[in-house]
Amino acid sequence: MIKPFKAGITGTGSMLPDKKLTNFQLESIVETSDEWIVKRTGIRERRIIDDSMPLAELAAGASNRAIADAGIAADDIDLIIATTITPDYLSPSLACQVQKLIGAGKAAAFDMNAACTGFIYALQISRQFIENGTYKNILIVSAEALSRIVDFTDRRTCVLFGDGAGAVVLGRVDDGTGISSAILGACGEDGSVLTIPCFYATEEDLALRNEGKKQVIWMDGSEVFTFASKIMSESTKNVLDDSGISINDIKYIFPHQANMRILQNAAKRLDVPMDKVYTNLEYTGNISSASVPVCLDEAAKKGLLKKGDKLILVAFGGGLTYGAALLTWSK
């Protein structure tokens, strides 16, 4: 079936908090060391949102930059999809808050939660609205304030996470570029290996946390590592097979930035050099669904991407969820 339109990324933007939390600063907060963190994760610092700043403000900043980069006005946005696991409010949604802050009064708006895979899920959802002609311009903004759900007495998790926001505008393209293939998946039966309670939690889940720490992130690191290393390479191969192209045709892979060892393991399984795998993990940490769009914006602003480059976007996250997309760069 021939689609009336094709969807491509026409603008990117990102915003990271000013405050940095280095490994050396963490040494005074929890029993750890810079050497241990770098060896285990590859992370040296992460950005931390100010207590007085709503996440919506960070998300709006990234959104405004993406809209400007696309060369359109906020009034041209038809739909806003926000991805987050750390919203300021359950209602109003982060997407509605962003709509207000950027003045996109004509846009529909909703949040979605696929944890760290959120951006890939939102990209596939948005792609369908563009391809079937429902909308012309869609803003996807992925924003996270993970420092607000971290137990800073738990060295297994507090060293991993940071805060930030990344956004893209998805629009109609007719020049052979855009999204060619995407896959989404979930392994809900394994969801208990990474949890963040909200209004309810089982006694077993609460027992995994330090006393009095209910609404914080808990993760079985070894189980997540095994899942992530396998699913990232499999998802990448699946979208390549679906499009009938080789990994050698890909300019860059933009993976979710969770742990450098996971990225290295996935690269080995794909038999690609690490210089083909874009990373900023060293100075952002894991910013969940925001990591892929922040990386995309960084690479674009550095001049690393040119029109026609083929890219793989791939992520995994709590749920457990996973997804990958193949796109040809449109800008």
Write the layout of secondary structure elements.
Elements: E1 6-15, E2 20-22, H1 23-26, H2 34-41, E3 45-47, H3 55-70, E4 79-83, H4 94-102, E5 108-112, H5 118-131, E6 137-145, H6 155-158, E7 163-173, E8 178-186, E9 194-195, H7 203-206, E10 218-219, H8 221-243, E11 252-255, H9 260-270, H10 281-284, H11 291-301, E12 310-317, E13 321-328
Parallel strand pairs: 4-5, 4-6, 11-12
Antiparallel strand pairs: 1-7, 2-3, 6-7, 8-13, 9-10, 12-13
Helix pairs in contact: 3-4, 8-9
Task: Report the principal-axis shape.
Answer: globular
Strand content: 15-25%
Count up the helices: 11
Q: Can you write the helix and strand succession as a string?
A: EEHHEHEHEHEHEEEHEHEHHHEE
Low-confidence stretches: none
Strand order of the largest sheet: 1-7-6-4-5
Which architecture of the largest domain per CATH? 3-Layer(aba) Sandwich
What value does the average pLDDT take? 96
N/C terminus separation: 26 Å
Q: Given this structure, which CATH class of the largest domain is correct?
A: Alpha Beta
Query: CATH superfamily of the largest domain, please?
Result: Thiolase/Chalcone synthase
Helix content: 25-40%
Number of strands: 13
